[in-house]
């Protein structure tokens, strides 16, 4: 038997398990398998669970945990309703969405997710579906399209100036790696600004992976397969995500029973996390 690896402890683990209100005979779904940290703990307390993960390397890492009562599926959580029904998961007791990148993804995929890795290529794809890379977007989008992306996905006040600078700089040199994008941002602000870096890199990653649309579809699908009294638990890491979560919960007349905001220091790879737990009423 293979030795089981050490699992990175996910953020708000205790609060997530409490929010799911785990019952031994219940059915639960982790829509964002990640490194398997949540799934491992859920599996200890319930009869069966379903884990969804879109990245094949991370899915393989979850498989290494040998969770015998967990069904795993490679897929996008936007298709959660279809995936759940495929495996016979209906009238679900609890569903979890942890919307942050895992520590392993940031460190090992080397796709330019973090502004701290100057040498990494601007890829930012989370799976192998053939979508545009971040560098493609920076080198092809019009100034207006770049402005709309930065302002919509990052709510960056200087989105227009950053878009103009990207277009100006790519005439002389195509955007390839992390340092290229930071150079364009620095030209607008006159100095390094890690908060702006974070917002702009976030905006690009969201665009590459169609994250806003996938989140809306995934949450709507999750509500449909939850049983009455079932719980939806979502951890988001910026206001754009949290606004979508709040909207879907309100639209479906769910009762919000927990909201918690946790903030981390600059050494953490996540700046803050918002946990929402809601119950399906009708």
From TrEMBL:
Classify the main location: cytoplasm
Record bears the keyword Repeat: no
Q: Which reaction does it catalyse?
A: cytidine(1402) in 16S rRNA + S-adenosyl-L-methionine = N(4)-methylcytidine(1402) in 16S rRNA + S-adenosyl-L-homocysteine + H(+)
Any idea of its EC number? 2.1.1.199
List the GO terms this entry assigns under cellular component, sorted alphabetically.
Answer: cytoplasm
Give the subcellular location.
Answer: Cytoplasm
Could you give a GO molecular-function term held by this entry?
rRNA (cytosine-N4-)-methyltransferase activity
Q: Which GO terms describe its biological process?
A: rRNA base methylation
Which positions does UniProt annotate for S-adenosyl-L-methionine binding?
36-38, 53, 77, 98
Pfam families named in the record: Methyltransf_5 (PF01795)
Q: What class of enzyme is it?
A: transferase
Report which superkingdom the organism of origin falls in: Bacteria
Keyword line: Cytoplasm, Methyltransferase, rRNA processing, S-adenosyl-L-methionine, Transferase
Family stated for the protein in its record: Belongs to the methyltransferase superfamily. RsmH family.
Query: Which HAMAP family does its entry note?
Result: 16SrRNA_methyltr_H
Say what the protein does: Specifically methylates the N4 position of cytidine in position 1402 (C1402) of 16S rRNA.
Q: What is this protein called?
A: Ribosomal RNA small subunit methyltransferase H
| This protein's encoding gene | rsmH
């Amino acid at each position: 038997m293979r030795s089981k690896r050490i699992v990175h402890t996910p953020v708000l683990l205790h609060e997530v398990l409490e929010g799911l209100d785990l019952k031994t005979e219940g059915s639960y779904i982790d829509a964002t398998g990640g490194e398997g940290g949540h799934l491992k703990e859920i599996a200890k307390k319930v009869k069966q669970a379903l884990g969804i993960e879109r990245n094949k390397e991370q899915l393989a890492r979850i498989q290494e945990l040998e969770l015998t009562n967990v069904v795993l599926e490679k897929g996008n959580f936007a298709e959660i309703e279809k995936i759940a029904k495929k495996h016979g998961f209906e009238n679900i007791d609890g569903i979890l969405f942890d919307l942050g990148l895992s520590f392993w993804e940031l460190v090992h995929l080397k796709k330019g997710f973090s502004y701290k890795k100057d040498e990494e290529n601007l890829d930012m794809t989370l799976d192998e579906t053939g979508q545009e890379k971040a560098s493609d977007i920076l080198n092809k989008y019009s100034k207006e399209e770049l402005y709309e992306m930065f302002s919509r996905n990052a709510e960056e006040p200087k989105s227009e100036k950053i878009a103009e600078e990207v277009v100006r700089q790519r005439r002389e040199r195509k955007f390839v790696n992390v340092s290229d994008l930071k150079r364009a941002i620095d030209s607008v602000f006159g100095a390094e600004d890690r908060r702006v870096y974070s917002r702009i890199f976030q905006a690009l990653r969201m665009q590459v992976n169609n994250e806003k649309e996938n989140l809306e579809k995934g949450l709507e699908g999750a509500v449909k397969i939850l049983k009455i009294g079932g719980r939806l638990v979502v951890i988001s890491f910026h206001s754009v995500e949290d606004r979508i979560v709040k909207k879907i919960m309100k639209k479906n007349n769910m009762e919000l029973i927990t909201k918690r905001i946790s903030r981390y220091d600059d050494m953490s790879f996540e700046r803050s996390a918002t946990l929402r737990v809601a119950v399906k009423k009708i």
